[in-house]
Amino acid sequence: MKKIVVFLGAPGAGKGTAAAAVASSTGARHVSTGAMLRDAVSRGTPAGLEAKSYMEAGGLVPDEVLYKMVGELLADAPDGTILFFDGFPRNVAQAEALSGLAASGGAEVAGAVCLDVSKDALLARLGGRRVCPTCGAGYHVATLPPKKEGVCDKCGAALVVRADDQPATIAHRLEVYEKATAPVIGFYETSGALRRIDASGPAADVAALVENAVKALV
Ligand code: AP5
Fold it and tell me: Which of 92, 186, 191, 195 is deepest in the core (most CB within 10 A)?
């Protein structure tokens, strides 16, 4: 059986940073639907062409695009894999659909961890984020700077600001989060499989809290 742990939290809460760190320390697989969609956009695939305008505006990509992507990924994952879902589900309809997608792919949802951060911290994290367009590594100008300014430590490529990290788009993403995604927290709270994390501390502290929460779920 494959097991899924869902990572919840607002844009910039640190889902990707914590999921990558804990995946690396536990051998789990980090699945970021945002990263998969950005890759599809950059390669110009049919899914990418459909997703591009929604992502640039900071809105949600149509559910059907995600269902196809997630269904294929689950079917391909080897039995016994623990998958950290970062960015999916992002509305209650997706949360309901995930149970069926998981069953078809030989998986079950073990539970969810939710990273709680104040709005001021979210804005500071998103405003200082830099990403590597080549290998996907993430940085922050103040809290996680690369060794050489503007250059990826891992592959040497020039770092960029994500297209949806412009102030107006960030504001819209936070609105979409409150309206569409925050209710997903209640969905997992009702099933009793939700762990809430105070994610306001440094990344290493958050990763340790998340690792404990994940171990209690899987
Ligand atoms: P996605 O890529 O999922 O973006 P998001 O949810 O807005 O989340 P972010 O990646 O912005 O934040 P994060 O919480 O991962 O923070 P990070 O670790 O990077 O989605 C992008 C778009 O794709 C969506 O808007 C939508 O259009 C589309 N999409 C994706 N999934 C979809 C779905 N299921 N349905 C429909 N559409 C979908 O950290 C942020 C910064 O803070 C970094 O610089 C990091 O270094 C820093 N940082 C992290 N943790 C800490 C810490 N503890 N202390 C200090 N700094 C920290």
Answer: 195
Q: How many structural domains compose the chain?
A: 1
CATH number at residue 20: 3.40.50.300
Q: Which residues, in sequence order, are CB contacts of 92 under 8 Å at separation 6+?
A: 183, 184, 187
- Dump pLDDT digits (tens) for 200-210: 999 999 999 99
Q: What is the pLDDT of residues 135-160, one digit of tens each?
A: 989 999 999 999 999 999 999 999 99
Per DSSP, 217 falls in state: H
For the entire predicted model, the pTM comes to 0.96
